[in-house]
From TrEMBL:
Subcellular localization: Cytoplasm; Nucleus
Family label: Belongs to the eIF-2B alpha/beta/delta subunits family. MtnA subfamily.
Keywords: Amino-acid biosynthesis, Cytoplasm, Isomerase, Methionine biosynthesis, Nucleus
Pfam families tied to this protein: IF-2B
Predominant cellular place of this UniProt entry's protein: cytoplasm
Name of the protein in question: Methylthioribose-1-phosphate isomerase
Enzyme class: isomerase
Species assigned in the record: Powellomyces hirtus
Catalytic reactions of this protein: 5-(methylsulfanyl)-alpha-D-ribose 1-phosphate = 5-(methylsulfanyl)-D-ribulose 1-phosphate
One GO cellular component term noted in the UniProt record for this chain: cytoplasm
């Protein structure tokens, strides 16, 4: 077994304090940004200083935890009873849910935390403001360890599946992944990248390929950073190289994350995922979606109903990186764009910038969760995730 290097930490939390690694500044600068309240939580999520479906939910919940802890500590009189606390929490959760629309984890967490708070506020013996505050803090804080535990299980289940379904045989695999699904998208270890970590830890990974993942470059800036940091054998490819890679290299599987999986298995994930699934099908390569069960939205029957975030076109026409020969970055401190942003497109051109696309279930080989691997029944083109999660 390969010695596990410490994985990067996107989120630093202790009661009363939250910091997030500013991912707009990676891989060139490691800067942690304080998140003292829900408004800043909304900001760091919306500007993608922190991103990744699980991380979005966790940072939203913990930004409210810090907000609630400091507000209650500073002025207990502002919270005369349990109802005043639950109203504060519900209002802030409603606001945090407006930060980004596609990743269902944020909405699942908000719903679950609201239920916990409502139960605490109506419990007997009669609830107090403090008892409801503590109920929220405990539930929000538990998300950190739970996410890491889920990701370790996803890694184990996914690695077993990929080794068992390697189209090239043998006990070592080469895989391709898209976007960033590692410690920078979660509380730690990661989902699709967690599978890669598990394979590497057990000496079953001969090589990992990652796409740059235009336009935000989660692959070249974040996944490549994680892989290099942990000395996992890896190669960066342009998004446009994926089909040529599958044609010329013995790729055992394509592994991706998910922002929202519909009940039938249709999956919304980073833009570019759909075309990877198409080329995987063409080349007979297993296409594996890795996500915690909190990314599965049983309320949505098919991918047609998944809201797809469209982001500002500036993210397409401006490239991110370090200006060569510069002191590093564009000189703006704490801006909402990555360091060294340069304009790379003809001024005046129109831009379409959907942040996600939907991969239909019939192109997906398996949905790997912390509970195990869901596959389609023989002859079926869709998954039955409701039964799988029952
Ligand atoms: C485990 S992260 C899941 C998912 O989130 C990423 O999107 P974004 O970077 O815009 O937050 C990407 O789609 C990942 O696959």
């Amino acid at each position: 077994m390969t010695q596990q290097a410490p994985t990067l930490q996107a989120i630093k939390y202790e009661r009363g304090s939250l910091q997030v690694l500013d991912q707009l500044r990676l891989p060139f600068e490691t800067v942690y940004k304080d998140v003292p309240n829900s408004q800043q939580g909304h900001h760091v999520i919306q500007t993608m200083k922190v991103r990744g479906a699980p991380a979005i939910a966790i940072v939203a919940a913990l930004s409210l935890a810090v907000d609630l802890h400091s507000s209650f500590s500073a002025s207990p009189a502002s919270f005369p009873d349990a109802t005043s606390v639950s109203t504060f929490i519900t209002t802030k959760l409603t606001y945090l849910k407006t930060s980004r629309p596609t990743a269902v984890n944020l909405f699942e967490a908000a719903g679950r935390l609201s239920s916990i708070v409502a139960a605490a506020a109506t419990s007997s013996p009669p609830a107090t403001a403090e008892s409801v505050v503590n109920a929220y803090l405990s539930a929000a804080e538990a998300m950190l360890d739970r996410d890491i535990e889920d990701n370790k299980n996803i890694g184990r289940h996914g690695a077993e599946f990929i080794l068992r379904h390697n189209p090239h045989g043998g006990d070592m695999v080469q895989v391709l992944t898209h976007c960033n699904t590692g410690s920078l998208a979660t509380a730690g270890w990661g989902t699709a990248l967690g599978i890669i970590r598990d394979l590497h830890t057990h000496n079953k990974l001969s090589h990992a390929f990652c796409t740059e993942t235009r336009p935000y470059n989660q692959g070249s800036r974040l996944t490549a950073y994680e892989l290099v940091y942990e000395q996992i054998p890896a190669t960066l490819v342009c998004d446009s190289m994926a089909s040529a890679l599958l044609k010329t290299k013995k790729i055992s599987a394509i592994i991706v994350g998910a922002d929202r999986v519909a009940r039938n298995g249709d999956t919304a994930n980073k833009i570019g995922t759909y075309q990877l699934a198409i080329t995987a099908k063409f080349h007979g390569v297993p296409f594996v979606v890795a996500a915690p069960s909190t990314s599965i939205d049983l309320q949505i029957l098919t991918g047609d109903d998944i809201p797809i975030e469209e982001r500002n076109g500036v993210e397409v026409v401006q490239n991110r990186g370090r200006l060569m020969g510069s002191a590093g970055g564009d000189g703006r401190e704490g801006g909402d764009v990555p360091m060294g942003t340069v304009h790379v497109a003809a001024p005046g051109i129109g831009v379409w910038n959907p942040a996600f696309d939907v991969t239909p279930a019939h192109l997906i080989s398996a949905v790997v969760t912390e509970r195990g691997v869901c596959v389609k029944k023989a002859g079926q083109n869709v998954f039955d995730l409701k039964s799988f999660l029952a």
